[in-house]
Structures are given as structure tokens and as C-alpha cells.
Amino acid sequence: MELTPKQQVVDILRNKSRILVFTHRAPDGDAMGSLIALYLSLHKMGKDVVAVCNDTVPQVYGYLKDVQKITHDFHGSRDFIISLDVTNVKADKVMCKTRGNSLDIIITPKSGRFEAGMVSFPEGGFNYEAIIVLDSTDLERLGSVYERNAELFYELPVVNIDHHPGNSHFGKVNLVDLTATSTSEILVGIIEALSGDPKFIDEPIATSLLTGIIADTNSFQNANTTPKSLTVAAQLVAAGARQQDIVRHIYKTKPLSTLRLWGRALSNLRDEKNYRFVWSVIHRKDYLEVGASENESGGVIDELLKTASGADFALLLSEKNNDVHGSLRATNPSADVSKIAKLFGGGGHPMAAAFQINKTTLLESSEMVIQRIREYQRDIDRANQLHLNQGTSPVMRVE
Predict the structure, then answer these.
(1) Among 215, 250, 285, which residue terminates a domain?
(2) What residue spans of 255-350 are helical by DSSP H?
(3) Cβ-count burial 42-57 (b if 16+ within 10 Å, e if not)
């Protein structure tokens, strides 16, 4: 009988000893929560595990255990192999010693003589056995850490664990659960099956997993909150998850630089009343002038929603790493913002989505983005008017 994707994931994690775990650049709460939870779980099981994220961890997630152990500048290197042909001359003993800046490998023959032509240098393998990618729709979303290590992803088995509808199923094993609120929610069942111990999920692991669930449901306020997510959250709290600490750090504690950055975004707010959305921008100079990091723009979109009375959705455009990043949040349940994100090569969920335009600035791309959204909304209005005139059911506001 063929194994399910979940069973395949558990089988790989159980039988591999040296494991790499990646999540996407510009990490959010689910990326951080799932990455740390799986790292802690595998480490607890005695695995040799490395957690990798392209970008610096936002300060708000500093309360997670071992968050400082996440690697940002990862370079996967191959083993260096020196091969000696002993067909005709047998080796008696081998020694290694350092001499200044050199490592000498001394091989004594039993008889005869070793020649330089007997030595070769076959290509070695990577010192890892599997790659786990968390909360990423595709490998490119991992950032430059993927570009630097592309060979690694082609040679090792890649496990893709995600919950986004736009996932490209890039892994050898793809566990993509569209009914889950978050990747952290998916990991709860995986860790339980992997350990076989109902008490294996301890306080640090439970806190990490609950962080991901709370972040991706906006503390259970979003429409994607399900009975299962609430049940799983209750289970994690019972296991010791620090729910109040999570809420305090994510929602109630903001550095002054973050508040100043939010002020810039709110002062740049524009209301597209005819097209039922609001939008704002954060320029690169805004980060510099208020002393904020690029990761501190994460909560701005939620603040925009509070001012978006009568709008179907809010859009935030920000300059990050020489690219333009777009975040979309819907207020109207009929506004599927994931389809707007697809206009620009992005994706996500009906109520929350994102896209990125590479190698550009806000000055170069913002007007193009806003104009395309205006045209899209106008097309939807025309289609709805046509259906109204014909007496048929209207289409969704954002199709």
C-alpha cells in the first residue's frame, strides 16, 4: 500500500540523521514558529539538524527558544575526497598531521612505491541527508540561500510542507494541506507521529507551534480559523504553550522604530473609493530615517485594515532588498486577494496574500501595480453589472 504524504514525511524524518530545515525569506510568525518547532523536535530526538532562514529573525520572535541558532548565511559544502588506487601497491598505515597551514596525509606502503598518478579526486557528496522546506510556495521564496545552494536541492530529497493554495509542489514529497490554518498546525500531527509519545511536545515546542497558529489566524480573528485550529491550540496550551507571552510579544510590544514606521505608512495612506481598496507605501528611506529594519513592516497591513472602512481590501507596497513587496489583506469575505496577487506572480489565501516584483523600486512599479488593480476591479464591476442586467447571479467582487 502506498504511503500517504504525511507517512512519507514521518518516514524520512525518522530514518535520516543529518537534516536541513529551511523557511522563506522575510519570515513571519508561522515561518518562525514552524522552523523552531521542527528544529527543537529533531534535536530532541538526537538528530543533527540545521535550521536556515535567509533573513534576520524579527526581534518580536526573540522569545522563542534557540532562535539565535538559526543560520542565515548557509553554504552547503561537499566532502573533499582523496582517492588512492591500491590495486598494485597496498597501504600499510595512514597518518594525518598538520604542518604550518598544511594538512599532510601520510600513507606508508607495505611494499613498492605510491606514484602521483595513483591519486584522484572524485567529487564528494553533501554532508546532509534530507531537506525540509516549511511554509514556502516555491524554492525561489527561500531567497539567495537557495540560489547559493541550488545543487544541494537537486541532489538531496526535498520535503515540502505548506498550507498555501499557490504551492508549486516542488518537493520529492509534498505535504500541502489547504485546510490547515498554518504550517505550524500541520507540524503538530507530524511531530506526534514521529515521536510516538503524546507528551513529547514540551513547552518550548508547543510555544513555537502556537506562535505559528496565532500569527496566521491573527489570534483567531481571521476567517480561516477552523474548529481544528482551536482544538489544536487548546492542546498546545495544555502542553505548556505560553499563549499570553505570544500575544504580548506579537501584538502588545512594539519598538519605537516600528511605531514610527507605521506612522509613515499611515501618513502615506490613499483611498481608492471608486475601486474599493486602500493602499500605502513604505520607501527604503523610511526604514533608514526611523531606524527600522525591513522586517518591522509586518504589522502595518493590519493597521491599514483598521482604517479601511468600506474597502474590500488593503494593500501595502514596501521596498525590501532591492525588490518591491506587496501585502494584501481582505476585509470583505467575497474579495479573494490571492487572485489579485497572482496578477503579479504571487499567491496566498483568499483573505491574505502577497507578491514580489524583483529588481525594481516603488518609483518604477507602484503606479503600474495600482493601475492594474484598478482595471481588475473595473472589470469585475462591469461583469457584475452585466449579470445584474441579465438577471443572473453576479460574480465575486474579486475574481
Answers:
(1) 250
(2) 256-267, 284-290, 300-306, 337-342
(3) bebeebebbbbbbbeb
End-to-end Cα distance, the chain: 40
In terms of domains, do 234 and 321 share one?
no
With beta carbons less than 8 A apart as the criterion, state whether 141 and 24 touch.
Answer: yes
**Residue 59 domain boundaries:** 5-75+127-250
Tens digit of each residue's pLDDT (9 = 90 or more) over 187-235: 999 999 999 998 999 999 999 999 999 999 989 988 789 999 999 999 9
Q: Which of 14, 40, 36, 20 is nearest to 129 (CA)?
A: 20
What local confidence, expressed as pLDDT, does residue 51 receive?
97
The pTM for the full model equals 0.80
User: Is 202 within the bounds of a domain?
Assistant: yes
Query: What CA–CA distance (Å, rounded) separates 399 from 229?
Result: 27
On whether both 133 and 100 belong to a single domain, the answer is no
Residue-wise pLDDT for 305-320, tens only, equals 666 677 899 999 999 8
Query: Does the pLDDT of residue 26 top 50, yes or no?
Result: yes
